[in-house]
Structures are given as C-alpha cells and as structure tokens.
C-alpha cells in the first residue's frame, strides 16, 4: 500500500506539485490522468526518490519513505518503470533485468527465487528471451519498454510505478502493454499507472485521480470517472 499525503515537489524554485494526496491500496491498480505537463512524471519521481519532495509525506506499507534515496526506496519494495524507459544501453537484456533484482542479490531485500522470477519475466515478454544476450541499446522502442517493465518486476515489488509504458509504441504494441498490465493486475500486483490512453487506463484501473496543474481536481472509482462528463470531455475524447 502506497499513501501520498499533501505532496509538494519543485524543480529549483518552481513548484510543480502543490499538495497532492493519492492512495494506492494493496492489490489495486490506480491511474493518474492529466494533460502534458500536469505533473504526472514529477509525482512518480518524487515517490521513487529521483527528486526530493519539498514537503508532504509518502509511505509504503506503513513505513515513511519521504526523502529517502531511491536505492533505499527500492529496498523498501517500490519499483519504478520510468518515462522514456532508461535502460542500460551498453548492457545485455539479462543484465538489465538482473540489475532490477540488485537489492535482492545484495540482501537489501528478501532474495526469494531470482532465477524463477527471471523465467517468469521471460514468459511474460518472450521477445526479451529471444534477445536476452542483445545489448539493450540496440532493442526497438517497444522491446526497451518491455525491458523497463521487466526490470521493475525483477525487484519483486510491493508497488509498481508505470510511467507511460505505451509511449511511442505502435498500436499493436500498445494493446500488448495493456494486456500485460491486466495480467499483472490478475497476479495481484499493486500499481500506479500513468498513461496517455486515459480511457484504456481507466478500463484496467480500479480507481483514478485527475491531476491538473499540480493539483488533484477529482478522483473516484474508475467506472465513475469514465462516465464523468467533465473527465470525458477533457481526457477521453477521440484524440485520447
Ligand atoms: N527536470 C525538470 N526541470 C525543470 N522543470 C521540469 C523538469 N521536468 C519537468 N519539469 C516541469 O514540470 C512540469 C510537470 O512536468 P511532468 O511531471 O513531466 O508532467 P507530465 O508527466 O504530467 O507530462 C512541467 O511544467 C515541466 O516543464
Ligand atoms: Mg510524463
């Protein structure tokens, strides 16, 4: 369970998040919807420790993780598949995946069955198995996206952050990404999902929050938001 309370975040002196509160209950998929520049990626970065919040609090499974380094937050059980993928271009696919399991290999986090989990990631993404020795930088955009998701899963996370997993992908791969998100949901993985395809995100999510200019303008169960006239007009039109 992830709980964000009154989070403020800034780049230098420019505040981007003006006090947002979001709850991601265990086993649920929660989506954050908003236009470009609303602050979705900043929210994800503040949660995973890539930037330090100005104020507010973030807790994971009841433990306060506010202001911790990203490596400690990963050890606490939070994995982040970042916008733009950020795979290690000069390392093979398998090494990228094992780096996701690093806290488990160094006993920062319970080890469990790392090899078994690697096998499960390869089952989920057969393309990655075919290319397991290939350098990540030479993968296609879609394959790099699968790798970023696979690497995050290798933490065996309590909470998974997915920031625009379908960005830049061909339509067929976009549906594949959503198929995988539902599959992960079926496995009971707790997720916070940011997606440009808001309608598809609301279809897979249990609950949604709308972020406008760094503030939550409304939130509710996903089927309720899907039918909200204002949300429909702003985010679920033909262009989305
Ligand atoms: N590294 C950065 N330095 C300064 N400003 C940034 C940086 N990243 C994002 N911003 C600004 O923060 C705001 C929110 O951006 P972002 O969180 O990326 O939005 P979203 O993911 O919703 O599109 C935007 O105004 C953006 O220009
Ligand atoms: Mg973004």
From TrEMBL:
SMART domains: AAA. Keywords: Amino-acid transport, ATP-binding, Cell membrane, Membrane, Nucleotide-binding, Transport. It holds the Pfam family BCA_ABC_TP_C. Residues 2-238 form the ABC transporter domain. One of its GO terms (biological process) is L-amino acid transport. One of its GO terms (molecular function) is ATP hydrolysis activity. This is Branched-chain amino acid transport ATP-binding protein livF.
